[in-house]
Design goal:
Layout lengths: L1 H37 L8 H13 L2 H4 L4 H10 L3 H36 L6 H20 L7 H4 L1 H12 L2 H49 L1
Helix pairs in contact: 1-2, 1-5, 4-5, 5-6, 5-9, 6-9
Pfam family, one: DUF1361
Organism: Gloeocapsopsis dulcis AAB1 = 1H9
InterPro entries: DUF1361 (IPR009793)
Length: about 220
C-alpha cells in the first residue's frame, strides 16, 4: 500500500507541479515586491518606486487567485475512486498550495500596512486593505472567467478595459465579484490574525530568552 501511495504521489506531483509552480511563482511576485517597496528603511518614493507599486497591484490578484484553483481539486476528486489517495495525497497537496499562495497575499498587505504605519497613516490601513480586496476580486474574475493575465494590462490594456466595463454592467459578474470580495476579506482577516499571532509569539519568546540570558549573565 505504501509503495502504491508513493507511486501515486509521484504521478500526481508530475501532473500538477508545472501549473502549481507557475501559479505560486505569480503569487510570490507581489510578495517580493512588497518587501522591496514597503520594508526598506527609506520612505522616499522615487519614479522606480511608483513603477514597482503599479506592478505590485497588477500582480497582487495572482495571490488570492490560487483559491479558485479548487475547481481543479473538485474535478480531480471526481476522477479518483480511492479515498486514501484523496485523503493522504490530493487534498493535502491542494491545501498546501492554496495556503502558500494566499499567505503570500496576506504578508504582502501586512507589509503595506506596516509601510502606512511608518508614514503615520495608520488610519488608512483598513481602507487600503478593503481597496486591495476589491481590486483583487475584480482581477480574479478577469483572470478566471475572462482568462486575462497581469501583463495584459500592458500588452492589451484597451481589451482589458473594454471587457471590464462590459462585465461590470452585467448582474452575474457583479455577483461573482461581490462573493469573491467577501471570501477574500473574511479569509484575509482570519489569516492576518493567525500570522500576526505567530509573529507576536515569536517576539515574546525571543524577548523572554533575552531576559533569561541577561539574568544568567548578571548572576554569573
Amino acid at each position: 500500500m505504501i509503495e502504491t501511495l508513493f507511486n501515486n504521489l509521484l504521478y500526481i506531483l508530475q501532473a500538477h507541479s508545472r501549473w502549481m509552480s507557475w501559479n505560486l511563482f505569480l503569487a510570490f511576485i507581489p510578495l517580493g515586491l512588497s518587501v522591496f517597496l514597503f520594508r526598506r528603511k527609506s520612505l522616499r518614493r522615487s519614479l522606480i518606486w511608483w513603477l514597482g507599486f503599479l506592478i505590485f497591484f497588477a500582480f497582487l490578484p495572482n495571490a488570492p487567485y490560487v483559491l479558485t484553483d479548487i475547481i481543479h481539486l473538485v474535478a480531480y476528486i471526481r476522477r479518483v475512486d480511492s479515498i486514501w489517495l484523496i485523503t493522504l495525497i490530493i487534498f493535502p497537496l491542494y491545501l498546501l498550495f492554496m495556503l502558500l499562495g494566499f499567505e503570500a497575499y496576506v504578508i504582502s498587505l501586512i507589509n503595506l500596512g506596516s509601510y502606512l504605519h511608518r508614514l503615520g497613516k495608520t488610519q488608512w490601513i483598513f481602507s487600503a486593505e478593503l481597496m486591495s480586496h476589491a481590486l483583487c476580486a475584480i482581477g480574479v474574475y478577469l483572470g478566471r472567467f475572462q482568462r486575462f493575465n497581469s501583463w495584459d494590462l500592458v500588452t492589451q490594456l484597451d481589451v482589458v478595459a473594454t471587457s471590464l466595463i462590459e462585465n461590470l454592467l452585467g448582474k452575474r459578474p457583479i455577483v461573482i465579484i461581490a462573493i469573491t470580495f467577501i471570501v477574500i476579506t473574511v479569509l484575509y482577516w482570519i489569516a492576518k490574525q493567525a500570522s500576526l499571532g505567530i509573529v507576536l509569539r515569536q517576539r515574546s519568546f525571543k524577548s523572554r530568552q533575552q531576559n533569561l540570558n541577561r539574568v544568567s549573565q548578571t548572576e554569573f
